[in-house]
């Protein structure tokens, strides 16, 4: 009789939905907007840089760059983008019979070499492999199509050629297999774990709780999320009351399968938030484009759950509308506009941003008319 009562109560908890169908207001956060805004064009610049440096000659014909525009997600012509960043990209003519080529400036090449040193270091590689393994474990099946992984490559801190330069060196962790694509219905290549990694199936929230309590990770604890709001922001009283009750619900690990919960229940939403929190925590930037999150959620079968969780919990997640897209930011990862957890690659990206900012000091006379600076002016600036 007692067991039946417990089961009944558990089922009630799984199906209960107490959230009032009210709109949770969105208020801009200038600090987190700045954290997003300052990286404008950085991802595109680094993608183009990697394409250039990957060629055997460490350069590309200027005429071929138009083909790269969709591949590196440029919002202007490639020539205009290069012209905007003369501190990073330089043109030269290999010989009289060949057309103009593009290469990195000496300063940009130095930064790239330092970045490569980080990617090749054993501690960084091991940490990267574990983050990637945990991402795959969030799926339950331990695999993701490569095109989904590619969406998170930049924010995970993976090298641009991660399949050949990283994955192939860890056959005890990963393998590339062919799977049925749930979204497109056809066959596609996927990154898969070769075996379960139970020791990694501990979320950041669980790890913190075990440290606080000085005990091993326990299931079903009532773990509460830290919530931060911009100055002057207040939740409506009825929504605040719901959030307080929701915080006290048992925590379900994102590495567990909780699809048995009623999709609209409060407990299911707490699990969805756990998945979102862990996903963003795995990223070195603690943020990513919202479309990346929704694509992953759609592939995993979450439907609109992740989107609703993002909207319902502005104290945990912030949605920025800067740089021509929408970006979701893990609030606890930042103090004002600064990352709390300093990752070496993020330090490198700030140095690239500084180099990009120097481009504005180059005078118009330093450009090749209509395209780029002359080789002589490049050499003069770099000397």
TrEMBL record:
A Pfam cross-reference name: PORR
Domain PORR stretches: 29-359
Any one GO molecular function term: RNA binding
Protein name: PORR domain-containing protein
Highest classification ranks of the organism: Eukaryota, Viridiplantae, Streptophyta, Embryophyta, Tracheophyta
């Amino acid at each position: 009789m007692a067991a039946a009562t417990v089961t009944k109560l558990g089922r009630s908890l799984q199906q209960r939905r107490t959230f009032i169908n009210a709109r949770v207001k969105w208020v801009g956060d200038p600090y987190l907007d700045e954290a997003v805004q300052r990286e404008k064009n950085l991802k595109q610049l680094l993608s183009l840089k990697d394409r250039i440096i990957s060629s055997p000659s460490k350069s590309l014909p200027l005429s071929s760059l138009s083909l790269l525009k969709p591949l590196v997600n440029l919002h202007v012509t490639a020539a205009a983008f290069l012209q905007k960043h003369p501190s990073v990209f330089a043109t030269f003519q290999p010989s009289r019979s060949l057309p103009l080529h593009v290469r990195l400036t000496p300063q940009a090449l130095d930064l790239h070499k330092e970045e490569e040193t980080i990617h090749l270091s054993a501690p960084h590689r091991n940490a990267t492999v574990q983050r990637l393994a945990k991402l795959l474990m969030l799926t339950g099946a331990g695999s993701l199509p490569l095109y989904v992984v590619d969406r998170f490559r930049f924010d995970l801190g993976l090298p641009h050629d991660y399949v050949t330069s990283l994955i192939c060196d860890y056959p005890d962790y990963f393998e590339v297999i062919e799977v049925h694509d749930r979204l497109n219905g056809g066959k596609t290549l996927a990154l898969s774990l070769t075996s379960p990694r139970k020791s990694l199936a501990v979320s950041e929230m669980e790890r913190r709780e075990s440290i606080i309590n000085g005990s091993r990770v326990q299931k079903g604890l009532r773990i509460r999320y830290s919530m931060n709001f911009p100055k002057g922001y207040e939740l409506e009283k009825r929504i605040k009351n719901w959030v307080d009750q929701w915080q006290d619900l048992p925590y379900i690990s994102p590495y567990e399968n909780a699809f048995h919960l009623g999709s609209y229940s409060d407990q299911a939403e707490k699990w969805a938030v756990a998945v979102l929190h862990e996903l963003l925590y795995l990223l070195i930037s603690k943020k990513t484009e919202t479309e990346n999150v929704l694509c992953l959620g759609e592939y995993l079968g979450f439907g609109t759950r992740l989107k609703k969780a993002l909207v319902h919990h502005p104290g945990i997640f912030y949605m920025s509308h800067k740089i021509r897209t929408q970006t979701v930011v893990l609030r606890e990862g930042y103090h004002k506009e600064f990352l709390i957890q300093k990752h070496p690659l993020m330090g490198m990206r700030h140095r690239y941003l500084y180099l990009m900012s120097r481009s504005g000091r180059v005078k118009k006379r330093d450009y090749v008319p209509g395209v780029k600076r002359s080789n002589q002016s490049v050499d003069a600036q770099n000397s």
